């Protein structure tokens, strides 16, 4: 669905690169992009979305060459939920906020409202349609932004730190949304620091470090590479670390796996 070839990017043209020689292909596996702050993760997804243009290299999304397309054209293909919802919200009601992208691609108002309400039901905000988004809590604002992107029904959905400010109930909502998108054969990407959530919900994990891809593989395989993760200053999920300390041989990703392994 996405092919990235020899991608490099610098904010100052010929200056120090933020990303260097990235080569990746994305299929429909749910994929987490992890790494320390400053590793280049957010810059990378902004390049995918067309919000930035590559200094060198190529990004293909389906038949689209991202360099040759505007962000508005790419909006039909790829949706991005920003890390800070206040950077994304600007309409006066929850419903208008969720409908904005749909109306912007010239969808009829009746259909746009129907899809927006369905997306708001999915995140549990359908009882706040006329509320001003800025009066929502931070976690509700994040869910509103997720609803706005999900309503667009793009083939690719990117979440930037989706679990920030979310309690257990909020994380469960996001988990269900990821599963629904996966069932619809959407590509779900996330930038995230919540390793427990990664282990439980993502098939593939990519580790960025200093603007380069340090690891790329199945989530279980990546979290088994303790020494390489240390190089990127990334800690495995808590349950994985506990299993390692107890001497369990297999790489454990979830509490259920841990209990099953201990019961043997």
UniProtKB/TrEMBL annotation:
GO MF annotations, alphabetized: ATP binding
Annotated ranges, domain ABC transporter: 2-235
Keyword set, alphabetical order: ATP-binding, Cell membrane, Membrane, Nucleotide-binding, Translocase, Transport
One Pfam family this sequence matches: ABC_tran
Entry keyword annotation includes NAD: no
Keyword Chaperone (UniProt): no
InterPro entries (alphabetical): AAA+_ATPase (IPR003593), ABC_transporter-like_ATP-bd (IPR003439), ABC_transpr_CbiO/EcfA_su (IPR015856), ECF_ABC_transporter_ATP-bd (IPR050095), P-loop_NTPase (IPR027417)
Family label: Belongs to the ABC transporter superfamily.
UniProt protein name: ATP-binding cassette domain-containing protein
Native source organism of the sequence: Neobacillus paridis
């Amino acid at each position: 669905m996405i092919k990235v070839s020899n991608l490099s990017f610098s904010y100052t043209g010929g200056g120090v690169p933020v990303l260097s020689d990235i080569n990746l292909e994305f299929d429909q596996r749910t994929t987490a992009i992890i790494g320390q702050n400053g590793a280049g993760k957010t810059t990378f997804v902004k390049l995918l979305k067309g919000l930035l243009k590559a200094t060198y290299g190529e990004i293909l999304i389906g038949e689209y060459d991202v360099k040759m397309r505007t962000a508005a054209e790419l909006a039909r293909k790829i949706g991005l939920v920003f890390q800070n919802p206040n950077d994304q919200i600007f309409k006066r009601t929850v419903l208008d906020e969720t409908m904005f992208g749909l109306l912007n691609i010239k969808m009829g108002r009746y259909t746009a409202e129907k899809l927006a309400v369905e997306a708001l039901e999915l995140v549990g905000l359908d009882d706040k349609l006329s509320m001003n988004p800025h009066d929502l809590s931070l976690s509700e604002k994040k869910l509103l932004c997720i609803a706005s992107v999900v309503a667009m029904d793009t083939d690719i959905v990117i979440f930037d730190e989706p679990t920030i400010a979310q309690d257990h109930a909020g994380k469960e909502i996001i988990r269900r949304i990821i599963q629904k998108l996966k069932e619809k054969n959407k590509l779900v990407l996330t930038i995230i620091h919540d390793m427990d959530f990664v282990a439980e919900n993502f098939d593939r994990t990519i580790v960025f470090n200093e603007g380069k891809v340090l690891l790329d593989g199945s989530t279980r395989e990546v979290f088994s590479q303790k020494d390489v993760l240390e190089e990127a200053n990334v800690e495995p999920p808590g349950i994985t670390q506990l299993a390692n300390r107890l001497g369990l041989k297999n790489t454990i990703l979830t509490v259920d796996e841990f209990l099953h392994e201990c019961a043997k």
